[in-house]
Amino acid sequence: MKTCMRYALHVVNPPEQDSSKGMPEDEFGADDFETLDSSIHNISPGGPDSDLPETIDPRKVSANASNAETEDPPAGETFEIDSAYHAPGMPARIAGFLIKGVIGSGGMGTVYLARQDHPRRTVAVKVINPGVTNPRALKRFDFEAQMLARLHHPGIAQIYEAGTWDEGSGGVPYFAMEYVSGARMITDYVNDRKVDTRKALELILQACEAVGHGHTKGVIHRDLKPGNILVTSDGQVKIIDFGVARSTDSDAAATMATGVHDIVGTLQYMAPEQCSGDVHDLDSAADVYALGVTAYELLCGKLPYEVSGMGLASAIKTITEEHPPELGVVDSSLRGEVSMIIAKAMSKEREDRYRTASEFGDDLRRHLSGDAILACPPTVMTTLRRVIRRNRGTVIALGLIVLLLSASAVAGVFALVSRNQALEATNTALAEQAEKHAMVGDLISFFMKDTFDAIVPLANSQEARESVVNISLQYLNRLREQAEGDPSLQRMLAEGLQQAGMNQWSLRSGNRGDIEDAIAKWEESIQIADNVYAGDVTDLKSLILCIRGRSLLVDAYRRIGLDEKRRSRLSEAETLADQLPNPMGEQEQALLLMGVLLDRSRLVPNEGNPEESPPFARMLELIDSLNNAYPDNEWIHRESTLVWNRLSYAWAQQGEFERAREWAVRSLESRQQIRRVHGDTNTARRDIVTVHRMIADQDMARGEYDGAIDRYRTQAIPLMRELVADSPDDIRSRDDLAKGLLEYGRCLLIAGSGKDAVTPLTEARIGWAEAAQRSGGDGRSDQKNTRHLLQTELALTEAYLAAGDTAAAKTAVDRAREAVESARSRWPDSEQLRSFEQEAQDLRARCLESLGTLKN
After folding, report:
1. What is the structure's pLDDT at 417?
2. Residue 457 preceded by cis peptide, ω within 30
3. Are 155 and 209 contacting, i.e. CB atoms less than 8 angstroms apart?
4. 95 — alpha (psi -120 to 50), left (phi > 0) or beta?
5. What ranges in 217-300 are assigned the alpha helix state H?
6. Do the beta carbons of residue 646 and residue 616 sit within 8 Å?
7. Residue 654 phi/psi, 5° resolution?
8. What does the pLDDT read at residue 646?
9. Sign of CA pseudo-dihedral 777, 782, 786, 789
10. What's the Rg (C-alpha) of the chain?
11. Contact yes or no for 197/204 (Cβ under 8 A)
């Protein structure tokens, strides 16, 4: 029986809130960072993918792609596909994809031409061969596929969907990728079109930009070669199979399975360290090397090494030890800068190459524009170091001879070398410091943020998310020890603490987050950022951290009812926001200021025209400025709707429901547009639900009962059910549905349709009862869940009475009375909870009143 597990790939957006919101053991090193990555998955990354036979021949595909069917065939019929592409035994469907034919196959797997059902489009589906995967690889695949989906770049073929497909022999991974119609391998494109040197360099530059984008996201390609670098008919480079080798955990054995001839061909593009088999020590420099070899081949029409006919061991020895002819020797027209740039990219030692593909591309761009390049011939000292590294024994012997011949001359040489070594030691220390800073930055941006966000939508990800938080905190504790006296590391520590707090706070969706600890992290972060900013008031990054940390605390204190602390941190944030140098023109500063103003708007008195109050007036001005400057920015649009929602609420608080509805409708239309343009994410749907509920409440207040009931029944509730179906473990979505059902039932009661209210209120009561059980003793969650449960029980009592079911009404009242009695002694002493205690007494009185009515 064929089964398939699927999950769509998308960038995770934050929930509805203000978007403003070897080395020594005690240091961060590359080993630490690798440990940090692997400790979560308990899986090691795999080796390179060397599936040369599977390389797509775009010329063959494009010849038939234009005639591909676009509708499902009638029953009993099949697609008419050229026999060269219709392979016996190929599947008819894989998940939501109708298979049209085989594009190519090899040691790693098979690539099919397919049509996706929803949305309807032609795609390439790559199914990994069962022999290449293992249980560890399948576990890593779930995580890695989410990482690859974050690579949004016009030069990278997008991965639309990934999953595991089982046709009876065990689950194997598949990727549904963008099908690049009419594209050709970059070598074929250059040769057939006879492009000149400048155009060839421009194509390599495009490839560098695309691969460099992957490097900024922490993803290495590891299998770059002409077969994975395509060019469309209009000259646009597309990188395919980005990260697939890593995701499938392919190793040396899988590589060898493709045959010695194929691996020898692919070895030409593999960096020396990659050929040596140390696949766990690869970095972006390996991709730089492969791009350099590809550029070499494009420019002079031949590969740098002649290894045809060699055995595997001989080929590896040639590539790792011998130096290829320089481009300028092969083709005199390429002497000078072009030859030096390509030679730097193809350096044997990775530290001599460009660090990333983007750096490689930047030097190409400088050459093309006539600016000075970074690449230059190796110095005498660089050459000497290389010789010593590779011929240490010979160098020692020669040194002894020189020592015997002329002690005084050698002494002078050693003095010079010592001076150079001291200088190099200083440079090395500076480089290590810069590398450490970059590594810590990667820890925060890639692991603590990107990785955490990527696993949030995965099913049953709660424990994995907790693991990310716990490991992050261990490394932040180590960073505390190193950051003393280093403003750059202190700033990074403050940023890391803020992100760690946000990750901890988000665990509330599973009732496992430590809210107090999240707040403690934010308080510590602003203390550190304040100290750094006090030492340099021109440090904009520290100022931003000072404001953002306070905004996080303002929202947290508001949610848990600590009003005095909330107001104190808000006042501090406002004072700091006044020091932003360009809040009306720079996006990050503007959004930060917007968050502070939104926090202040929640405290605006309910009197007068709210649109004329200082925070609202400034926000409206800021929105106009931002929308003019960034007309297509999703988060600017969303921030605008947050302001309009606040205005709608402010008008409603004054009883001006017509004006409130105008702002809410404006927000709804904008949020629906965001969903259409930027994607159907959970955040987009949740945002729309929020406004539907606002409008329904305002319609009820205006006496438009039918409109409110219809909006809940046809718009809000169906969207809430979609959110729960897509993320059944997301407690927030389940609570939102229970809340929506409660509000819907109340609308029906007020409209005189009490009998119809029984069904939604019964479902709401079950939802709140489950929420109360999940809360696990968290006072704040208990308070909220108990309050909603009480409200639902009382509303259900009235609905049963309206339906004439007195027995059911009495049962609901009894449950409410027991909950009220239990709640009176459970809550700690805070302003919000004292208010709740009075509310609980009022609710109990209503319970008794309802019960008395039943007895009479």
Report:
1. 38
2. no
3. yes
4. left
5. 244-247, 252-256, 260-267, 272-275, 284-300
6. yes
7. -95, 5
8. 92
9. negative
10. 32
11. no
Quick one: tokens of 811?
């049962």
> Would you tell me the crossing angle of helices 587-601 and 540-560 to the nearest 10 degrees?
30
Q: Within 13 Å and on the Cβ side, how many CA atoms surround 330?
A: 19
Q: In this structure, what token pair is assigned to residue 369?
A: 């524009």
Structure tokens at 763: 């479902």
Query: Any idea what DSSP says for residue 18?
Result: -
Amino acid at 488: S
Name residue 94's beta-bridge partners: 97
Q: How far apart are CA 299 and CA 190, in angstroms?
A: 9
Q: What's the length of the chain?
A: 856
Nearest-angstrom CA–CA distance, 472 and 67: 52
| Alpha carbon distance 523, 608 (integer Å) | 36
**What beta strand segments (E) does 323-473 contain?**
none
- Give the span between the Cα atoms of 404 and 391, in whole angstroms: 20
Give the sign of the dihedral formed by CA 270, CA 276, CA 277, CA 280.
Answer: negative
Q: Which tokens go with 59?
A: 């010329």
Q: Following DSSP, what letter does each residue of 32-63 receive, concatenated? A: HHHHHHHHHHT---------GGG---HHHHHH
Give the relative orientation of helices 135-148 and 30-41 as an angle to the nearest 10 degrees. 110
SS3 437: helix
Six-digit token pair at 304? Answer: 């740098």
CB 275 within 8 A of CB 317: no
What does the CA dihedral 240, 242, 248, 254 come to, rounded to 10 degrees? Answer: 70
Q: Which two tokens stand for residue 273?
A: 């360290």
Positions of the chain with pLDDT under 70: 1-87, 106-108, 130-150, 167-170, 243-265, 276-281, 376-483, 506-514, 774-783, 820-821, 823-856
Q: What is the DSSP letter of 156?
A: B
Beta bridge partners of 239: 156, 229
pLDDT digits (tens, 9 = 90+) for 129-161: 766 556 655 555 565 566 666 678 889 988 888
3-state secondary structure 186-242: HHHHHHHHCCCHHHHHHHHHHHHHHHHHHHHCCCCCCCCCHHHEEECCCCCEEECCC
> In this predicted structure, what is the pLDDT of residue 57?
33
How many Cβ atoms are within 10 Å of 78's Cβ, its own excluded? 11
Catalytic residues: 223
Reported as a single tens digit per residue, the pLDDT across 106-116 is: 656 788 899 99
Interior/surface letters 622-660, b for 16+ CB within 10 angstroms, e for the rest: bbeebeeeeeeebbbbbbbbbbbbbbbbbbbeeebbebb
In this prediction, residue 79 carries a pLDDT of 32
HSE value, Cβ hemisphere, 13 Å, CA-based, for 849: 8
- Which pLDDT does position 845 carry in this prediction? 59
For tokens 């106009």, the residue is 624
Running DSSP on this structure, what letter comes out for residue 172? E
Q: Do residues 400 and 439 lie in contact, with contact meaning Cβ atoms separated by under 8 Å? A: no
- Buried-state track 8-18, b at ≥16 Cβ within 10 A, e below 16: ebbebbeebeb
DSSP E strands, 504-660: none
Report the amino acid identity of residue 379.
T
* Number of neighbours of residue 147 by Cβ within 10 angstroms: 22
- State how far Cα 490 lies from the chain centre: 25
Residue 13 DSSP class = P
- Short-list 354, 334, 356, CA closest to 344: 354
Phi, psi at residue 177, to the nearest 5°?
A: -115, 160
What separation in angstroms does the CA of 849 have from each of 747, 810, 855? 22, 12, 10
Q: What are phi and psi of 184, to 5 degrees?
A: -135, 155
Which of 274-287 are b and which e, b meaning 16 or more Cβ less than 10 Å from the residue's Cβ? Answer: bbeeebeebebbbb
Give how far Cα 19 sits from Cα of 449, 455, 616, 645, 816, Å: 14, 20, 17, 15, 39
Whether 214 contacts 242, CB under 8 Å? yes
CB of 574 closer than 8 Å to CB of 596: yes
Biggest CA–CA distance in the chain, Å, is 121
Query: Helix, strand or coil for residue 116?
Result: strand
> Which strand (E) or helix (H) includes residue 168?
none
